[in-house]
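pasting for the record
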Amino acid sequence: MAGAACPDTMGNGMDRLEAMRVFCAVVETGGFSRAAGRLGLSTSSVTKQVLALEAHFRVKLLNRTTRSMSLTDEGRRCHARALALLADMAALEGSLHDAAHLPRGSLRVDLPGIVSRLYVAPALPRFLAAYPDIALRMTAGDRLIDMVEDGVDVLVRIGALADTRLIARSVCRTRYVCCASPDFLRRHGAPQTPAQLADFTCLNFLYPQSGQLRPWRFQRDGQLETHTPRGAAAIDHVDTLIAAAVAGAGIVQQLSLSLAAELRSGALVPVLQPWQAAGPDVSVLVQHQHHRTERIRVFVDFIARLFADQRPG
């Protein structure tokens, strides 16, 4: 336990609030070093904050050994109340910033690479100019994320949503679109049914992890069917696949989300439109206790407007 200096470090209410935030991060990540990594602090700083909190309350919050860590009964009560207190503080900050029309603070966002590259990055200067007091930290990828453990405020995902603890807002409905370049269609014509794809050069998508071909999806009169056409090439990179189609290498099927720019410019032309099948939704997810926070709300609205304006689906 810390000496006489510890109570002094806890003499300010905001210091106690910060110590509680650090303590909750230690509990949620399962360790001091992991909490330090999430918070951008040194491990010694995290340790001092927790020791100071124990000194202030005069109770032991964590049972610690070199190999394990667990909450004491007092620690469990402190963690539950600290979570509620931090959520209330976030809501208060959000409402006050909302009233002042000045959203501010750090904002951690994780979104798929295709969404960040094609939609968010081109519009990012507009968001940063409108909200100069928001410090945005954005990561792009498709890995599984635990919003609490990874400290993420806003999560954008394509496809089915498994975590029912989160608030989800659908911002875009996609379609599976078959298309080819105008030059390819002039030279070879266009298929009139999915079965006729067997007579055309097709470009397949290859799942990077499994090495399996992704089946092509079609729907007409409520009936869903899949085909895996014999392909001249199979590529595991969506951008490369689309570039090959634009160059006239063959017919491709991808989500409208990925093809929006090429379809708008005429670089690719849709085929088999009566058989287009619905694709997965693009959704924005936030935690229940944070959905009213102003900096989160304005970013979610920004994402929704992007898709509404560009009409990718």
